[in-house]
Design goal:
- Strands 2-7-1-8-9 form a five-stranded parallel sheet, sandwiched between helices. A four-stranded mixed sheet has the order 4-3-6-5.
- The chain is α/β, with parallel strands linked by helices.
- A hairpin with a 2-residue loop joins strand 5 and strand 6.
- It is globular and about 45 Å long.
- Helix 1 crosses helix 8.
- The termini are close together.
- It has one domain: Rossmann fold (3-Layer(aba) Sandwich).
- The chain has eight helices and nine strands.
- It binds guanosine-5'-diphosphate and adenosine-5'-diphosphate.
- Guanosine-5'-diphosphate (GDP) binds next to helix 1, strand 5, strand 6 and helix 4.
């Protein structure tokens, strides 16, 4: 049996956080922690699968371990979500912005394994978000947001604490993820 850990996947929008999270669930049977947001669902997203989609009102009624505003929408994760996921598996995974990752590192210490994803140029991020089918108007606004620009680089608070992966090549990313997970199994 492994110790309980939460793999926190963070980095810029379009850097591949969801893709890595899905790889961790399929390859290593990690339970994913579903977070809450007031953002509108994207075309293929489902309530209770990708997020719990909330109104401003219902978002405010939940009890969060941490919550943030990102590009004009609210996002939050709960202790209850973590505890429920840990009932399913010792290794679990969550996707957070860098502010959330800093909170998890501070609050959970070694229980939080932080993976920061980046790509070599921001044009690639934009291209990936377009090919994912993001609405162009929303995308144009989002890439001007302070949070998007902030999350392009590893924050000082996570230096020396996060595993950094350059997600330019998916095969190499998988290898690096495998190495990291194997340290904790
Ligand atoms: N701190 C925090 N960040 C979250 C939470 N849920 C999602 N996020 C982050 O919010 C940001 C925006 O997410 P999303 O709208 O799905 O856009 P995407 O990154 O382009 O897929 C991403 O950095 C997510 O990792 C949460 O509960 N807490
Ligand atoms: N290494 C990679 N090479 C090419 N495309 C990728 C790579 N990793 C992820 N993608 C694609 O880029 C898009 C954005 O990835 P996603 O995981 O949704 O990012 P995020 O959750 O960080 O916003 C998706 O269409 C995904 O399939």
């Amino acid at each position: 049996m492994s110790d309980q850990r939460v793999f926190v996947i963070t980095g810029a929008a379009g850097s591949g956080k969801t893709t890595v999270r899905n790889y961790l669930t399929s390859q290593f049977h990690m339970t994913k922690v579903i977070t809450h947001t007031t953002r509108q669902p994207r075309i293929h997203e489902k309530n209770g699968v990708d997020y719990y989609f909330e109104t401003e009102d219902s978002f405010g009624k939940n009890h969060y371990l941490e919550s943030v505003s990102y590009a004009g929408n609210r996002y939050g994760s709960s202790f209850e979500g973590l505890e429920n996921a840990w009932k399913q598996s010792d290794l679990i995974t969550i996707v957070l912005d860098t502010a959330g990752a800093i909170t998890y590192q501070r609050e959970l210490g070694d229980k939080a394994v932080i993976i920061f994803l980046k790509v070599d140029d921001s044009g690639t991020l934009l291209q990936r978000m377009k090919s994912r089918g993001d609405d162009t108007t929303i995308l144009t606004e989002r890439i001007k947001s302070n949070e998007y620009l902030r999350d392009l680089s590893l924050p000082d608070e996570l230096k020396g604490k996060a595993h950094v992966i350059n997600n330019n090549n998916w095969e190499l990313t998988k290898q690096r993820v495998d190495e990291i997970v194997n340290e904790y199994k």
